[in-house]
Design brief:
single chain; 58% helix; HEPN_LA2681; TPR-like_helical_dom_sf; LA2681-like HEPN domain-containing protein
Length: 509
């Protein structure tokens, strides 16, 4: 068979196997794809082969009922994620027609949402809708995803606005101008319509639409502050759930908080202060927003700072970047990445895992000590956001997943280690292709261009933001569970108040 004939044959085999719940057919399709990809395929065909591979693994997952299971580990889900990510990041991806690109991005976002990475899923659906604003599956799944996301948010106003946007997205998915890639779209339309109607009954759509005022918010007092706030909105870096809807001024605030924490009276004998986890989360938030501003300053600086004057350095003839501004970018990267290990420490303490603090990291907090096996507490946990954190760690540390992620997310761990322990050689972005060989990693550290470092620093900030949301939502899930399970217990309360902005002024006296 020609390449096109082979793909068509495999595609039919996958579809028929899915319809008939015939696992052997899906396995056969995967074997044929392995054989096909041994050929020197054109880029466009290679991308489609990965897309078909993802569909074959999705068929196996559906037959095994994996998606309805709370099992955190799944070969089927991981292989489907790998194939979709390879397709989306393949050089031939842009050669595909708009519809196929939307399918790949939407399917990957659906999978991210399924494993608990709701924030990353919303960004994925939005990416598909930038290609085709009428793509029905992206619109409908985005609406369903926003509906679940709204359910995790405590603030009544934000929850109502998210639910409104979920409703609007679902309505667009069933509108006459919605674009459906499958001829058998009526059952899906009926499902989206049913979900939209349920939301319409639960939310006063007109009232929420009138009060949302997304264009009203804190613009900033100076030109620099306004530019900073707009940059944060555009990169989706504010700790506000409304920022996941877009660059709305109403989202220019960092309102994310932990829920109320319940402790037994004898849990910390003799200590009557608030739970330490609350102060720890506030410290992490402060580190995040400070790193975010350092990154903005480092990326936007155009002057030589007075602290750099008279500092004698060697010109190594590779257009190196040495300055306070570049160090701010490096520092922002390090702080944002370090937040992941601190979140792992928070997970250990809140879920009482009993790990040795010095050995805790975002990579291993999930595992039995010195073994690649999930802790029993997590194996079948129905805490959706906690599972999302686990799958986020897989993208950073699983050798296969991290190599197939988008270019700006690759090598984040290696860069962090170079920043902390070895040598990260940064050259001016325009000079890198001329000064750095094809391999950016050598026995003497890592070489990188300034523009690449900046894009990766932004990606680390986005990952840290998602992780802060996920851990807050995960704790909220556990606290709600405590409330249900211990509804008859006597409960005392300790009110806590906001830390006012005027107290943030440093006064050594």
């Amino acid at each position: 068979m020609s390449d096109d004939e082979a793909l068509e044959h495999i595609g039919r085999l996958i579809d028929d196997s899915c319809d008939a719940a015939f696992e052997r057919g899906a396995k056969r399709a995967l074997y044929l794809l392995d054989e096909l990809t041994k050929r020197p395929l054109p880029e466009e065909t290679a991308v489609l082969a990965e897309y078909f591979r993802a569909n074959a693994w999705a068929t196996r997952s559906q037959i095994a009922n994996i998606r309805q299971s709370w099992s955190w580990e799944s070969v089927e889900l991981q292989e489907e994620m790998l194939a979709l990510t390879r397709a989306a990041s393949h050089p031939g991806f842009m050669r595909l027609d708009n519809g196929r690109r939307c399918q790949i991005l939407t399917n990957r976002a659906n999978l991210l949402n399924g494993v608990g990475r709701s924030i990353d899923a919303i960004a994925g659906w939005d990416e598909a809708l930038r290609i085709d604003p009428h793509f029905a599956m992206a619109l409908g799944n985005r609406g369903a995803g926003l509906r679940y996301y709204a359910g995790m948010v405590d603030d009544n106003r934000e929850r109502a606005i998210l639910a409104l946007h979920a409703y609007d997205s679902l309505c667009k998915a069933v509108a006459p101008d919605a674009m459906h890639e499958s001829p058998n779209f009526l059952p899906v339309v009926a499902q989206f319509k049913e979900t939209a109607e349920a939301l319409g009954r639960a939310v006063n759509v007109d009232a929420v639409r009138a009060m949302q005022n997304l264009d009203q918010g804190k613009q900033g007092r100076s030109k620099v502050e306004r530019a900073y706030r707009q940059w944060c909105l555009d990169k989706r870096l504010f700790l506000c759930s409304l920022n996941d809807l877009g660059s709305y001024l109403a989202a220019a605030t960092d309102e994310l908080m932990l829920p109320g924490i319940r402790e037994r009276f004898d849990e910390r004998p003799g200590d009557y202060s608030p739970p330490p986890i609350i102060g720890f989360f506030s410290q992490m938030k402060q580190e995040y927003v400070s790193a975010r501003y350092m990154l903005f300053e480092g990326m936007s600086s155009t002057r030589v700072h007075f602290s750099d004057r008279g500092v004698m350095l060697t010109n190594t003839l590779d257009y190196p970047l040495y300055s306070l501004a570049s160090e701010k970018v490096r520092t922002a990267f390090r702080i944002a990445y370090s937040l992941l290990d601190k979140i792992a420490f928070l997970i250990d303490r809140y879920w009482k895992l009993g790990k040795v603090p010095a050995h805790i990291s975002f990579k291993n907090v999930w595992m039995v000590e010195k073994k690649q096996r999930l802790l029993p507490q997590f194996e079948e946990s129905n805490n959706w956001s906690l599972r999302g954190l686990y799958w986020l760690s897989k993208e950073l540390f699983d050798d296969q997943l991290k190599q197939t992620t988008s270019a700006d997310a690759r090598e984040l761990h290696a860069i962090r280690n170079a920043l902390e322990h070895t040598y990260l050689r940064v050259s001016m972005g325009w000079a890198k292709p001329f000064m750095i060989g094809p391999s950016s990693t050598s026995s003497f550290g890592i070489a990188i261009g300034s523009d690449e470092l900046e894009s990766k620093a932004i990606r680390v900030m986005q990952i840290a933001r998602s992780a802060l949301f996920y851990v807050s939502f995960a704790i909220r899930h556990e606290e709600r569970k405590k409330l249900r399970d211990d509804s008859e217990d006597m409960v005392g309360s300790m009110p806590l108040y906001w830390f006012e902005d005027r107290w943030k002024r440093y006064d050594p006296n």
